[in-house]
Amino acid sequence: MKLIKAMRGTRDIYDVEALKFNFIEDTAKELLENYGFGRIITPTFESTDLFKRGIGEGTDIVDKEMYTFSDRGDRSITLRPEGTAAVVRSYLENKTYAKEDLTKYYYVNNMFRYERPQAGRYREFYQVGVEVLGNASPMADAEVISVGYRLMEKLGIEDLKVNINSVGGNETRAKYRKLLVDYLTPKKNELCSDCQNRYEANPLRVLDCKNEGCQNLTIDAPTLPDNLNDQEKDHYETVKKYLDIFGVKYVENPRLVRGLDYYSSTVFEVITEKLGSQGTVLGGGRYDNLIKQIGDKDVSAVGFGAGIDRLMMLLNEDQILNTPDVYISWLDEENIDYAFLVANTLRDNNVKVYIEYAPKSANAHRKKAFKLGAKKEIIIDSESKTNKTLGLKELSSRDIEIINFNEILEKIR
Ligand code: ATP
Ligand code: MG
C-alpha cells in the first residue's frame, strides 16, 4: 500500500522539536501574563470576508495565500492566515470595548498560508501574538515592542535586531505615496518584476523588496519619517523615548513598511541574519484603522505576531532538554510496588523521575540513565524494599549512599 504522508508545507512536531515548542509556549505565556495579557482563543476558521475586509485585497495574504473554500452549507470560509483580524472580530462582536477601556490579549495559534514551503516557511505554522486594544498612547507601542524584546531575551535567542519605523496615518501615507511614485516612475523599468506590479497597487512595498537592485534604487527615495506631520512625529519620538526607558535596543529603519495594509503609525520587526530570507521572527505595529474597517468603531490598537517555527530554529537545544532529575534502577520483579512508590512520591513533589515498566540489569539501567542525561540514580533491590531504604548516587560517581525512604525528598533536593 502507498504510504500516506503529511501534506506539503505541514509537519509533525515531536521529540526535541516538541520540547522547543513547549519551551517557547510556556516562556511566552508566563512572560505575557506577568505583563497583564490574558489569553484569547479564537476559531481556526472565519468567514472569508473578515480577512478580505481586515487584511485588505491587494495584499499577498488575501490575493495569494489564503486557504479558502466553501463548506457544506456553501459558506465561504478561510483558515486563519494571521491572528489580529479574529481578535478584532471578537472584540467587536462581544462588545468588549464597552466593558473595559483597555484590553490586552495574547494568543498562541496555528496559522495557514498557501506559500512555497522552505525552511522556516510552512503552510501551517504557529504564532504567538499580543494585541493591546483601546489605547492610542505611544506607551502602548513601546510596551508591546518591549515585551517582544523581553520574550527573545527569555528564550535566550541572540543576534537579533529590533527595527522600528513610523508609517504615519492615512493622510501622510497618501501624500508620501505620491512622492514615492514620482520618485520611482523614471526608474520603473529597472525594478524587479514583482515591484513593477506592486508599484501601482502598493508602491510602499517596493521599499522592503528583498531584491538588491530594488534596494539600491530606493536608497535616495524620500522616507516616511521625513514626511510625518507634527503629531505623528511627536508620537514616534515618544515611542523611542519609552523604548530607551524600558532598555530596548533598537535600530530606526525608515524603509520598514510591513506587508499588511492595516498598519498605521509605529511598525516594527525583530530580525535575524541566520535564517536567510525567512529572517523576520516577529512583526507588528499600530493599527488604528483596522477596527473601523472591520466594525466601524474608532478604537486604537497595537500588537505583534512572532513566528514560533522560526524561533524554534534559533533556540539553543541545551537549555530545553528535558533531562530527568532522577533515574530509578529497579532490579527485580518483586520490588515493583516499592520502586513505583519511590518514583511517585518524588513526582508528587515536583521531581522529574524516569522509571521503566520492567526491571533490568544494573548495567542496562546505567546505560539508559546516561543516555537520558539523568543527574541522580536511585537503586532499588530486594534488600531496600525489606529495610525501607534505597541506594542513591550521583550518576557521575561510583559511591552509593544508602538512605532511608523518609529521607529521599531532603536528599534529592
Ligand atoms: P515573511 O516576510 O517572512 O513572509 P510576513 O511579513 O508575511 O513574513 P507576518 O504576517 O508579519 O509575516 O507574520 C509574523 C511572523 O510570523 C513572521 O515574522 C514569521 O516569523 C512568521 N511567519 C509568517 N509566515 C510564516 C510561514 N509561512 N511559516 C512560518 N512562519 C511564518
Ligand atoms: Mg509572508
3D structure, described in words:
By secondary structure, the chain is an alpha+beta fold. The chain has 2 domains: 15-168 and 224-317, Bira Bifunctional Protein, Domain 2 (BirA Bifunctional Protein, domain 2); 323-412, Anticodon-binding domain (Rossmann fold, 3-Layer(aba) Sandwich), CATH 3.40.50. Helices cover 38% and strands 21% of the residues. The chain is built from 16 helices and 16 strands. The chain has helices at 16-34, 48-54, 60-65, 84-93, 96-99, 138-155, 170-184, 193-201, 212-217, 230-245, 290-295, 308-314, 336-348, 362-372, 382-387, 408-412; strands spanning 38-39, 45-47, 67-70, 76-79, 103-112, 124-133, 160-166, 251-252, 264-272, 280-286, 301-307, 326-330, 353-355, 376-380, 389-394, 401-404. Helix 1 (16-34) packs antiparallel against helix 6 (138-155) and helix 6 packs parallel to helix 10 (230-245). The chain starts with 15 loop residues before the first helix and ends with a helix. The model has no long low-confidence stretch (mean pLDDT 94). Bound molecules: adenosine-5'-triphosphate and magnesium ion. Residues 82, 113, 115, 120-122, 125, 127, 259, 278, 280-283, 305, 307, 309-310 line the site of adenosine-5'-triphosphate.
Which descriptors apply to this entry?
413 residues; alpha+beta; BirA Bifunctional Protein, domain 2; Rossmann fold; 2 domains; 5-stranded mixed beta sheet; 21% strand; elongated; binds adenosine-5'-triphosphate; binds magnesium ion
User: How would you describe the oligomerization state of the chains in this entry?
Assistant: single chain
Gap between N and C termini: 53 Å
**Which second-level CATH architecture of the largest domain applies?**
2-Layer Sandwich
Overall shape: elongated
**What are the segments in which pLDDT stays under 50 over at least 5 consecutive residues?**
none
Strand content: 15-25%
User: What's the number of helices?
Assistant: 16
Mean pLDDT: 94
How many domain units?
2
**The CATH homology group name of the largest domain:** Bira Bifunctional Protein, Domain 2
Give the class-level CATH name of the largest domain: Alpha Beta
The CATH topology assignment of the largest domain is BirA Bifunctional Protein, domain 2
Main beta sheet: 8 strands, mixed
**Largest sheet, order of strands side by side?**
1-5-6-11-10-9-7-8
Radius of gyration: 27 Å
